[in-house]
Amino acid sequence: MERNEKELVKTYVPHLRYDRAEPFALQGIGYTLYGEKMNKELLDSGMKIWQNGERGISAKSPSCRRIIQAPPEGMAIEYAFYYDFDIQHLYDLEHAFVYLDREGQIVGVESSFHGKFLNSRIEGITQYEGTHPVLYVQPGKHALLPAPAYFQLVIDRDTACHRDAGEAGFLIGPMFEGRLFTDRERDRKVETYIRRNYAFRPTWDFTEKSPDGRSTEELLMPWEELDGLMLRRLGEWSRRIEEDTPA
Question: Which residues of 17-40 are buried (b: 16+ CB within 10 A; e: fewer)?
Answer without folding.
Answer: bbbeebbbebbbbbbbbbbeebbe
